[in-house]
Amino acid sequence: MTTINGTDLDVFPLCFGGNVFGWTADQDTSFAVLDAYAAAGGNFLDTADAYSAWVDGNSGGESETIIGRWLAARGNRDDVVIATKCGRLPGLTGLSAGTIRTAAENSLRRLGVDHVDVLYAHRDDPDTPLEETLTAFDALVREGKVRHVAASNYSPGRLAEALEIQRREGLAPFVALQPQYNLMDRDEYETELAGLVAANDLAVFPYYALASGFLTGKYRPGSTVDGARASKAEQYLDERGVRVLAALDEAAAAHSTTVSAVALAWLAAQPTVTAPIASARTPEQLADLLPMADLKLDQDELDRLTAASAR
What are the residues whose beta carbons fall under 8 Å from the beta carbon of 165, sequence distance 6 or more? Predict the structure, then answer.
């Protein structure tokens, strides 16, 4: 387990991304995946009110609803760290004070809980003053509805400004950042954000940790893969992507493990990363991810992966 900086929350090395629930995994399959994750020691779930509003017939909140039903069925709320997000649900976008409160209370209802452990701003809202947003988050913390607040998809400048306002005004501070970061998408995080989060001792939970599935190794030259994320994953299948796959294959063979586990272990080993976020739509897919929790790559292996993924 790893403790989230600035909190007393101990979390599993792999945060499970709940975006698949109500999208590519129905309720029964979602329950099976959640059961398998918990049986392996997993205790950290990431969701959002906007999951999965992009599916025809969905209105958002499907992932939270499924998680809430699972928590109720298993009676394990106290064993699970729940993170959710607000600000991107169609019809409830932005980070005004009223929107944040309504979104948070709706999330609590769907999850069937009296508080969430982490509430993220799903993305920055340049049309709402930061002071209003941060004061609204602080109020939820003071009321006990949210234990900690965090940011996702913030630019370095806006994140630095938010942190300064929180310090100056004595508001509940951001304890974490959720950026896009993986072996294939490194430049934006490493050049602009890594130093800032390190200086402010923020936890980091990268999303798209497997580059929309590319880093599972199932996308290869000449292969055809059907899936909801295939078009995104296939964009990485260039000369650089082939180099990364070769380095992943080598490390996976050396440790008798999966390509997915190696990719996640590389990410987990980066100095500012607390735990990567990854999802699976079946227990079988999850089984490919779980070995990362105990996988320790040596420095030479980390260096080879880093070099292979360099632009």
Answer: 130, 131, 134, 171
**Average pLDDT of every residue of the chain:** 96
For this structure, is 51 an active site residue?
yes
d(Cα 130, Cα 241) in Å, to the nearest integer?
39
What residues contact 265, with CB distance under 8 A and at least 6 apart?
A: 292, 295, 296, 297
Residue 123 lies in a domain: yes
Beta strands of 153-294 (E only): which ranges? 174-178, 203-204, 277-278
Q: How far is CA 94 from the centre of its chain?
A: 20
> Tens digits of per-residue pLDDT, 11-37?
999 999 999 999 999 999 999 999 999
Q: In angstroms, rounded to a whole number, what is the distance separating the alpha carbons of residues 164 and 200?
A: 10
Phi-psi group of 244: left, alpha or beta (phi > 0 → left; psi -120 to 50 → alpha; rest → beta)? alpha
> Residue 257 above 80 pLDDT?
yes
For the chain, the domain total comes to: 1
Question: Which CATH number characterizes residue 35's domain?
Answer: 3.20.20.100
Q: What is the domain range of residue 85?
A: 2-178
- Among residues 51, 120, 207, 236, which one is catalytic? 51
CB atoms within 10 A of CB 243: 15
Residue 15 resides in a domain: yes
Angstrom distance (rounded) from CA 195 to CA 88: 27
Strands 10-11 and 146-152: unpaired
Query: 11 with 4: CB under 8 angstroms?
Result: yes
